[in-house]
Design brief:
alpha+beta, 6 helices, globular
Length: 102
């Protein structure tokens, strides 16, 4: 089950995208791109499409002037958030441990 889950959410950008989307009800593409330092347009687009296909992200089009698209998490993706918080806490402690060594 762990390997299966990591096949879905693994890679460099999927979890950071899920984490950033968890902080707001929805985000526009450019807003999300600004929050993810170093991601390319192609990688963000592909990652969002993949997460949408896997029913982890909702893409909502607004047909107004100017038209725009917003992304948000599905209820299924929100089930990952407690695990992400644990990973974040572990990462913070590890960064502190490594910086204290130097």
């Amino acid at each position: 089950a762990v390997i299966y889950a990591l096949e879905i959410i693994g890679g460099k950008w999927k979890l950071p995208i899920i984490y950033k989307l968890s902080k707001k009800d929805s985000m526009r593409y450019n807003e999300l791109k600004r929050e993810l330092e170093g991601i390319t347009n192609i990688m963000l687009t592909r990652s969002l499409q993949y997460l949408e296909e896997r029913k982890l992200v909702i893409r909502e089009e607004f047909n107004q002037i100017p038209p725009h698209v917003e992304y948000s998490l599905t209820e299924n993706a929100k089930k990952l958030l407690p695990a992400l918080e644990v990973i974040k806490e572990w990462g913070s402690m590890e960064m502190e441990r490594v910086s204290n060594k130097g």
